[in-house]
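Researcher: Please generate the 3D structure of the following complex. Treat every line as part of one assembly.
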Amino acid sequence: MTASPLPAARDLAVRHRLQWWEALPWVAGVAAYFLFPNYLAFGTQVLVTILLALSLDLVLGYAGIVTLGHAAFFGAGAYTVGMLGMHLGWTDPVAGLAAAALVAGLIGLVSGWVLLRTHGLTLLMLTLCTRALLVQAANMFSGFTGGFDGIPGLSFKPILGLFRFDVLYFRTQYLYALVVLFVCFAVVRVLVYSPFGRSLTGIRENLLRMHAVGAPVRARQVQVYAISAALAGIAGAVFVQATGYVNLAVLGLERSAGVLIILILGGYGRLYGAFVGAIVYMVLEHTLSKAYPTAWQLGLGLMLVLVALYARNGILGLGEALRRRWSAR
Amino acid sequence: MDLISILLGGMASGMVLFIVSVGLSVTMGLMGFVNLAHGGFAMLGGYAIVLAMRHWGLPFPAALALGFAAVALLSVLLERTLYARLYRASELDQVLFTIGLVFVMIATVTLSVGPESQRVVLPAWLDGQTDLGFIRYRTYSLALIASGTLLMLALWLAFERTRIGARIRAAVDNRRMAESVGVDVGRLFTITFALGSGLAAVGGGLGAEILGLDPQYPLRYLAYFLIVVAVGGLGRVTGVFFAALLIGVLDFTLKIYFPKGGTMFIYALTLIFLLARPQGMFGKHGS
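Model: Done. Output below.
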């Protein structure tokens, strides 16, 4: 192969190619199934959170849209599946995923089309308001949503008519979540390395220049917002199908802020940040928060302050910096 | 309840919102810094005031003054050591940093005081009813309305009639221009940050009777403070005053007539309003 004249051009030409280490998360995901058979319920939660963080990465990391309302879409997907199951008896899991993606995506499309006219503080406020609005609506129309108590005790048909959900050990749920995550990840990976993904990065890095070269900036932003919302909706659907209940917490501010923290902690705008962040955060939370909830909050707060001040690219960013220092020797 | 008592009750809670949020509006307008920890200062002030009254037996006004001074001092320390590093950082880093700060504040208060909610013991001269001629109403609510209005007038005079107020207005409208004619915006920011946080502390103490006071306070009312600031317009004292009154009265009324989904209307109205006027009621340019 003839060497390209510019290292940057060479990087661009090969950056979408699969690396050997990209198989690692999936090998680890399957290995965890055999190694920790008693922790599969927790593992399913981790996988759902990775998917939610990944969807946020599309808008935040690639398109540079700061939102505090991402749980709105997770909750929309969760409630879609829950309400279809309760009122219409529609409990096919895969059809549920499609319905959740459709509803959440539509909400994303409409709210994105309306909200993305604004930016900065106003946009932040509006995303916060949209999420709060959905919480209040879910609370108010309790005939449909179960109100404050939510919808408990949902059960779903076997996946594709073949695999029954495993209420006790979460074996099926774990593998199901892993497969859904894998498919969604493949979509996101293709998307970010496509010309569409490049134009998103362009919008994040230099809005004026993208306008100047005639890129359809607003259309791109609304599109990615809707796609990300659909993915978050799928995450919410898997959550409900795995656990069998849905309540107002799926729309909570804690979830919105939590997934933001997870993504920043792992490193945003780099695909695998969602994986690293979700695993580190949730393992820490799982082990610490039950025994010392207040100390966990204190530690989390300090960690956020430190990350904002010193490690803006998260754990993966730190890793890259170390590797660069190592190879520079 | 009749119309006038609803109006008075809503105005009283609106005044609390105003006292807490006004500092946030000015500091956000000056630096464009997204400070989600502002409610945390209000909570810390509330605790300082309640604890000073309980353990040292300070009278209410003295405790308010103490809360103001303590939180103003703390905020200057934080501003100089931590906030100042993030002025040029992205919005995302500011959001992250201030959320982290809120968590630290909540955990510190929970560890040192406890998770239960605190009550302010009002002095006898504020606890009771006052006859206004046409209606008898809670003295404390009336005192809140009076002090909020006085504060608004004082701030308005300070903004419109003093040199420092003129500098702040200039810096909010056009920071670069203000800097190039010799206004030290950094120092201005430190001063307003301290005053704003101190006022938030006073608001936390005064409002404990209405909004309650417990460690989750900064997160519970985060959206309200931000709504008031965004609707009123960044760096606009009068805008924040009217926005706070409007939202206080609306919230109070809706909670009486629609106890279940009343808050939904506030969020919906805010959404519609901000889409129509992203710069707020009195703001001149978009943020």
